[in-house]
Specification:
Distance between the termini: 36 Å
Oligomer: single chain
Strand content: under 5%
Mean pLDDT: 82
Helix content: over 70%
Order of helices and strands: HHHHHHHHHHHHHH
Radius of gyration: 21 Å
Length: about 400
């Protein structure tokens, strides 16, 4: 009874936190805008180009390239600027760029559509670390992991609902209304963020150049053992996910001998499991340390990949995919909580800006060669290699189990 009361009280404390409520509502509107953007632009470009793969790939370039080019820069500026003001301006500028694209669509070339994805993706590299900084500043440490769980659950929910919403808006109302809906969603997010408490006025300190602050960020990560090991874990996970992510459809067609359309069941199993995983972690947030949560998630992912590579039965493959989906919130929440707990508020933006590109860079590296590797090695070998990489990630983090949480520097 005591545990349940404490859990309920903690959840009540979380929802009473003004910053948590505001950021989660902002994320809700942003996710609507992002998924309407992703699917309406994808369907629109495919329609305009008759499914030209080069044009379609440019959408993903516009979405992911800014992570490499602007993540660390955005994180550095997020540490310099006031977080509330940064987030509000990013959403307002995203909305303005979307409405500018809408005008261009009406009066000019349809190719300006790529600009909407590019600009909002760039601005998110400044906004996202500012949101993490607000968590660090305003959310008690005991509630951070629970808050990250709720944050992750919203993303998981939209992995299921997002494609449906985006496709529905485009098919029923067309690209103009879809673009307008994106702009309104970003505006609503900006309006919600105005409810955040005022930015703290920090004491004047000696102004450093951007380059000096960037170098300080790298030194900070390299001198912090926990963050350095997390970087190695990020790299191992990125290599593993990039290796097998493009190959899911071949699990359906080659290992199971089913039509490619059956891939939707794998995606559904993954999305449902991610929601359940986020809810489960939320309930266990007070009982499991973030490091153990990360190790559990990495181990579960390794098991899921192992079974998917070996399975030739649909039910077994779906079970493995479900296990992998349950693991993803454990990994994401564990990593984000560890970053916040082991990073001073002045460095939150730069630490995110360093570690996130490590994951994305390694993922895209193996993603770019996975098709060629599949032609050389078997599908089973690819999934077992991903299993080994996740185990490597677990091994990298194991030394921290021997170190008390208070001494992980």
């Amino acid at each position: 009874m005591t545990g349940n009361t404490e859990s309920k009280a903690s959840m009540g404390d979380l929802f009473r936190n003004r910053v948590v409520r505001t950021i989660l509502l902002s994320v809700f509107f942003l996710q609507i805008g992002i998924w309407v953007r992703n699917y309406s632009i994808l369907l629109f470009v495919m329609e305009k180009t008759s499914g030209d793969p080069v044009a379609v790939s440019l959408i993903y370039v516009a979405e992911f390239a800014p992570i490499f080019l602007f993540s660390f820069i955005g994180g550095t500026f997020a540490d310099r600027w006031r977080p509330k003001r940064t987030m509000v301006w990013c959403d307002l500028l995203s909305s303005a760029s979307v409405f500018a694209v809408l005008l261009t669509l009406v009066f000019g070339s349809w190719k300006a559509i790529f600009f909407a994805t590019l600009v909002s993706s760039i601005l998110s590299q400044f906004s996202q670390p500012s949101g993490m900084k607000l968590f660090k500043l305003h959310v008690p440490e005991a509630l951070i992991q629970m808050g990250m769980s709720l944050y992750q659950t919203i993303f998981a929910l939209f992995m299921i609902l997002g494609p449906v919403i985006g496709t529905f808006v485009y098919q029923h109302y067309g690209i103009d209304i879809a673009i307008g809906a994106m702009g309104i969603a970003f505006l609503l997010s900006a309006a919600v963020l105005l409810l955040l408490p005022p930015d703290r006025i920090e004491e004047k300190r000696k102004e450093k150049t951007i380059w000096e602050e960037m170098k300080a960020g790298f030194r900070y990560v390299l001198q912090n053992r926990t963050l350095t090991l997390l970087g190695g874990c990020f790299a191992a996970a990125g290599l593993a996910i990039g290796l097998i992510q493009p190959l899911s459809v071949f699990i359906i067609t080659e290992r199971l001998g089913l039509p490619k359309e059956q891939l939707q069941w794998l995606m559904a199993a993954n999305g449902i499991a991610m929601i359940l995983g986020g809810i489960l972690v939320m309930g266990l947030a007070k009982k499991i340390a973030p490091l153990k949560l990360l190790l559990i998630g990495m181990t579960m992912s390794a098991c899921g990949f192992l079974v998917m590579g070996l399975s030739s039965q649909l039910w077994l493959t779906l079970t493995a995919q479900f296990i992998g989906g349950l693991a993803m919130p454990c990994i994401s929440i564990g990593i984000n909580t560890m970053i916040l707990q082991n990073t001073e508020s002045d460095f939150v933006g730069r630490v995110n800006g360093i570690l996130n590109p490590v994951f994305m860079g390694t993922m895209i590296l193996t993603m770019s060669v996975s098709g060629w590797l599949k032609s050389v090695f078997s599908l089973m070998a690819m999934f077992e290699t991903a299993t080994v990489l996740f185990i490597v990630g677990v091994i990298i983090m194991l030394p921290l189990l021997k170190v008390p949480a208070a001494q992980r520097e």
